[in-house]
Amino acid sequence: MHITFIVTGGTIFQTRDPKTGCMIIGAHLEDIVAPEFLSSLGVHSSLCVDLKVRSGAELTYDTIFAARDAVVAHMARSTAFVLVTGTDTLEEFAFCLDLLLGNVLVAASTSLVVTGAMKPYDIEGYDGRCNVQQAMQVATAPGASRFGVLVTLNDSVHLSRYVRKADSQLMGAFQSHPGPVGQVREGCVRFYYGPPPEATSLRDPRFEVLDAAAVARVSRVAIWVTGVSSFLPEALLPELSGLILAGPGTGSLSAALAEQLAPWTALIPVVLATRCATGNNFDDHYYRGSREKYEARGFLLADFAHLTPVQARTLLVLKLAAGVYSQYNHLRSALPGSPERVAVQCQQPKAASGATGTAVAPPLQTPDDRGEGTLKDGGPNR
Ligand SMILES: NC(=O)C[C@H](N)C(=O)O
């Protein structure tokens, strides 16, 4: 067996620099992975691709694509891949790689497991060594390759589709809302269920041919959290390739914000997500018409069902780069703020301020809203 490691920094490699008192990359993969442990798994050769990133906050789509390219380049030789990274953006990294590569990995019977550490290398109780060992065990376990990209930390194995960093500090930070797909117990990997169809349905073959340059043109997607007395500065919108609104409950928007943003949906994709930790961005079972009333005004909901705002952002960036929404293809040819993009924006309506424009917003009231109120008067009870 051959394992390829890809490393992109993070707490797992960090120590305190005695000279400056600041955190630095003070450890390397060879300090963490014992050759004897590799041999015990039947791994006779390994390789490390260091993408030279300091921490999770520094992660860029360029690095994600460099990792994707490293996997593709070493796929023929490798039985398994272990990606060691900063935990702050680990969930985005894993989710994005699964969208880009999940089907390719499954077809090639190759596993990819992402891991990191919650405690620095020089702190008592350092979890990095154990996490990397368990990631190697999971990556080489029978059946691991049917899942696409997995995440392993703290004895747990998560599907990249469901995992999120739910705590900013503690060891059990990584959680999946349906629970982990597997665990490491008594030194052995146990998978409890196979990949449910929902976990793989977001992979799109068009993502497999994307490159970093295509994504860079559309990656200025902002996440804006709304709630009490919501607002959004109009001046922000021309700077964006897209907007994820993380709204309360099932992604409810105030009537005023919906009025302001509806005309902008002709220019940039505006996705409605929930700011709750889990759950959907609409619920037509309880709040009838809750999807249609926004989709009719140009907001995107259904393609982003049951995703966190961070996941919705990743998916939207890839969809835009792949040209999935032809109405937004103008975003792919010009960077935000460039003269071409500004020219398109100048043609756009400012319905909220009363100016004229080209986007036509349908009426606010949907048949199912009757009697429960409309967006204008506060909307139905969602
Ligand atoms: N535990 C960690 O890895 C957090 C760190 N700040 C990072 O993401 O690089």
Descriptive overview:
By secondary structure, this protein is of the alpha/beta class. The chain folds into two domains: 2-200, L-asparaginase, N-terminal domain (Rossmann fold, 3-Layer(aba) Sandwich), CATH 3.40.50; 211-353, Rossmann fold (3-Layer(aba) Sandwich). The protein is built from twelve helices and 15 strands. The protein has helices at 29-32, 35-40, 61-74, 90-107, 128-139, 197-200, 212-216, 255-261, 292-295, 309-321, 330-333, 339-346; strands at 2-8, 14-16, 23-25, 45-50, 80-85, 111-115, 149-153, 156-159, 163-165, 174-176, 182-185, 188-191, 221-225, 242-247, 270-274. The strands form four sheets. The chain has an eight-stranded mixed β-sheet with strand order 4-1-5-6-7-8-11-12. It has a three-stranded parallel β-sheet with strand order 13-14-15, covered by helices on one side. Strand 11 (182-185) and strand 12 (188-191) form a beta hairpin. It is globular and about 60 Å long. The site of asparagine has 10 residues, from loops. Residues 345-382 are annotated as: Disordered.
Summary tags:
alpha/beta; 2 domains; 3-stranded parallel beta sheet; 12 helices; 26% helix; 18% strand; globular; disordered C terminus; binds asparagine; L-asparaginase_N_sf; EC 3.5.1.1; asparaginase; L-asparaginase_C; L-asparaginase_N
Outline:
One of its GO terms (biological process) is aspartate family amino acid metabolic process. The protein has 382 residues and is of the alpha/beta class.
Q: For the record, give the distance between the C-alpha atoms at the N and C termini, rounded to a whole number.
A: 53 Å
CATH architecture of the largest domain: 3-Layer(aba) Sandwich
Question: What's the CATH H-level homologous superfamily of the largest domain?
Answer: L-asparaginase, N-terminal domain
Computed over alpha carbons, the radius of gyration is 22 Å
Under CATH, the topology of the largest domain is which? Rossmann fold
The parts where pLDDT drops under 50 for at least 5 residues are 351-382
The succession of helices and strands, N to C, reads EEEHHEHEHEHEEEEEEHHEEHEHHHH
pLDDT averaged over residues: 89
How many domains make up the 3D coordinates?
A: 2
Task: Please identify the oligomeric state.
Answer: single chain
Question: Main sheet, how many strands, which sense, barrel?
Answer: 8 strands, mixed
Protein name: asparaginase
GO molecular function, one term: asparaginase activity
GO biological process, one term: aspartate family amino acid metabolic process
Organism: Volvox africanus
